[in-house]
Write a structure and sequence with these properties.
about 240 residues; alpha/beta; eight-stranded mixed beta sheet; seven-stranded mixed beta sheet; about 15% helix; about 30% strand; globular
């Protein structure tokens, strides 16, 4: 009876649990978020949006929008984009990525935005860069704030804890997707500090334990990250990579 009550509460909260402490997906309002692996997510509502689709399901759903944070191969992969792209798919990324792709493409820089009123989707780009390492210079990448008719999701991209995060606090983000793997991005401790600045309602860790996708040196313990946010009032949802 106790287990059934816990499962019922979790389902009402929008999560579907696997055999471990990880969740297969997270639902906020009428939007479902699934972590595909590494930094790749599929966000399903009235429209289907992919973030950084370097990892895909075996039979991926076609995309209405594809948002790519920067040009590195493990985020901007023309091969993977083609698998989910139709002649109606809108692709938004930095110029370095866009020049590798074709179709309905738009380049974007930090502070720029696109308002697709016909789909009730508003997209704003924020800074995403490294503070003290050279992998991601300022201006080369972006984080994406996507407003789905009032529900806000932020994909931070490959970033450190940057000063521009203070500007996100006022956005009252519903779900934050944040890297925790270290080396190329924040580690779990740094990411927890960043989350406390941004103050989302829910945070989902990404960009860690990616060796099976050919990305090494980004190992992290998501449970440790969760523990670091204990008492913050911010819910941590650990998703299981789908691919």
């Amino acid at each position: 009876m106790k287990y059934l009550m816990i499962l019922l509460i979790a389902l009402l909260a929008g999560c579907v649990q696997t055999q471990t402490n990880e969740w297969a997906q997270y639902k906020v309002n009428d939007i479902t978020i699934k972590w595909l692996g590494h930094s790749a997510f599929i966000v399903d509502g009235e429209k289907t949006i992919y973030f950084d689709p370097f990892v895909l399901d075996a039979n991926p759903k076609q995309a209405d929008y594809i948002l790519i944070t920067h040009e590195h191969f493990d985020h901007c992969s023309p091969e993977h984009v083609k698998r989910i792209q139709t002649d109606r798919t809108r692709i938004i990324s930095t110029f370095g990525c866009i020049e590798k792709l074709s179709g309905k493409t738009n380049s974007i820089k930090p502070t720029e935005s696109f308002n697709y009123t016909f789909d009730s989707i508003y997209i704003v780009a924020y800074e995403s860069y490294n503070n003290d390492k050279s992998y991601h210079p300022r201006g080369d990448g972006v984080g994406f704030l996507v407003d789905f008719n009032g529900t806000k999701i932020y994909h931070a991209g490959d970033t450190d804890n940057v000063e521009e995060f203070a500007n996100l606090t006022q956005e009252k983000i519903d779900v934050l997707l944040v890297p925790i793997g270290g080396k190329y991005t924040m580690n779990a401790t740094e990411a927890a500090a960043a989350v406390k600045i941004i103050k989302p309602r829910v945070v989902i860790p990404m960009h860690f334990n990616s060796a099976k996708y050919g990305i090494t040196d980004v190992e992290a313990d998501a449970e440790q990250f969760k523990a670091l946010l204990g008492g913050s009032g911010i819910d941590v949802v650990i998703l299981k990579a789908a691919a």
